[in-house]
Structures
1.
Amino acid sequence: MSLTVLITGATAGFGEAIARRFVHDGHRVIATGRRAERLEALQQELGSALLPFPLDVTDATAAAALPGSLPEGWREIDVLVNNAGLALGTSPAYQANVAEWDTMVATNVSGLIRLTHAILPGMVERDRGHIVNLSSSAATYPYPGGNVYGATKAFVSQFSLNLKADLLGTGVRVTDLEPGLVGGSEFSKVRFSGNADKAAAVYAGTTPLSPQDIAEAVAWVVSLPPHVNINRMEIMPTCQAPGPLAIKRRG
Ligand code: NDP
Ligand code: 8X3
């Protein structure tokens, strides 16, 4: 069965890989993000199964207008992949830039809930659908400089579980995906304001997960029979593990 899949943040990284994967699997994709030219390029590559639809998730009016603002024939969304998100900076909380905190909250939290709010009623009405939220291992495991980024992802994970509670008795599924270290996307470049050396250092000497690995996980949870719901999935590269609690010793 061919699904209609709306992906936020499909101009790069995971979102772009997820778009490619769903189109190759025979589904239709509404690819969103702010960089319209990248969405157009993706359509050139993948053809008419992909609809480029520029959308800034922090634009509350545009989010509320969905899915009514989509072209006829694209309004019944089967899968919403809430992927758009970002981390900005790694400063400790007492030195952080509050404008960067605001941007992370506006994108990772407010953007995600507004998209969900716009699309969920149609899914409930049709009694089927699937919301896949991109959280992070940072939702569970804190690290120095993660502060607001980690907190936004903890919100995403808890929101996902609470959505599932509200949707009990409907056919709508919710999955919270919590990846650890993933390379091959723009995530670290964005986090370090375009500093390529700092971004590359994050992955030095590692074999991180790839955006294709994340696309594989999303494709798998969505492909399961309708009575199966993966609530949350934590996925890390083999070279990563949660660490022991830190202890600061005197002297
Ligand atoms: P990228 O930076 O490669 O991609 C982020 C995407 O989000 C881009 O397509 C960007 O599109 C979009 N985006 C950012 N802000 C907005 C906005 N205001 N409105 C619409 N789209 C927006 O990052 P990744 O692919 O690595 O990350 C994807 C998701 O996965 C994020 O939520 C991230 O937090 C999460 N994640 C990433 C991990 C990693 O190690 N890479 C690990 C765990 C989770 P555009 O700029 O064109 O709008
Ligand atoms: C991205 C993974 O460890 O940089 O969510 O927070 S991490």
2.
Amino acid sequence: MDTLVICGAKPLQGQVKVSGSKNATLPIMAASLLSTGEVTLSGVPELDDIAVMAEVLRILGAKVYRDHDTMVINASTINSIEVPENITRRMRASNLVMGALLARFAQARVAYPGGCAIGSRPMDLHLKGFRNLGYEIDEEYGIMEGKGGKIAGNEILLDFPSVGATENIMMAASLTPGVTIIRNAAREPEIVDLQNFLNRMGARIRGAGLDTIRIEGVKKLDGVEHSVIPDRIEAGTFMAAAAISRGDLWLDNVVPEHIQPLIAKLREIGVEISTWTSGIRIIGNDHLRPTDLKTMPYPGFPTDMQAQMMTLLATVSGTSVIVETIFENRFMHVQELRRMGADIKNEGRVAIVKGKKRLQGCKVEATDLRAGAALILAGLYAEGETTISRVEHIDRGYDKIHQKLLEIGADIVRV
Ligand code: UD1
């Protein structure tokens, strides 16, 4: 297994091109199953999670080719409606094919993804949505099985604005006769990108980005070309890297509107930020202030940036309070940051961070994707050498992060 070795305390400087969004690409790949035409995606990041989703589509019988950041998907050859457990356990987002399979074949068998490190992550909201559309859903022996019953558009009120449930229901409803209304829908930019993709295929959806989405079912969807939006969490991680290394970074391929909650928080603590249409400049300094933050559904502060922000605040004098409201167990990085000398206490969903001038490099373990990113940031700040193991978690969601960091002056080696 690979490790990353970082020698810290060097300001990062230069330009970084942010890759396409992982969380936009995954549902769009799943939505490609809705059409028998050819789908061409550009801006597809090179990540393990994307490779797993490509494997899911191939298991179902689709043809998937990739060349650099372009991916071509042809789902005219689908010959299975079943996603086995060995795949759903590797990546929860593989459940996103269920809505598309139901809509196109009126049948789907998807193994339950089970819990994961950051929380139990049930599927009840996805299944409630399918049932409201008239699908018969059985859950037995760890398998979610759906069959077409009396299918018709309907009103669906989500108890929580789940990103995955909103996406899965949008896909299912786009080929379901009648009008479907999703209330309390997730509002993330990735939902808007999925709407744009589906509408380009011929779907009739409006409202994505707001809390009510209206989907008028159509009979068929066509092949299409689509460019995925930039990855706002990768952008946010590099913003935190500029701030923590007290460096100066220019990020290209960014939609500043998508990272407003982050820009606001970083400005609040004293980071200098300027934005233009598709880029952003971040300048760190030694006079940052502590803050409090609470993760919330978009447009609140993203849970996927909580760990990275905690590392940054661990280096800022004064006390900051972080509340995680989205996932019940998303503080596994706390223990690893403490090993490096950070002063963080946590109880339930609350962490109290007392910023310190020094962190000390040592051996740490990436326990999940964003925890891994938080440890990279800690390594960039710390004195001495930080060795991060379980890099496979980081590979799930950061496209060539090691090379990108090298190019802006980090002392980082992949072993
Ligand atoms: C997506 C993102 C993930 C991000 C998360 C929250 C992708 C591929 N992943 O995950 O990076 O951290 O949004 O912004 O886009 N829940 C239920 N029942 C359900 C579904 C969800 O209780 O049926 C709960 C979950 O357990 C969790 C919360 O809702 O506590 C948020 O989950 P959700 O928004 O669905 O996240 P994902 O789509 O899994």
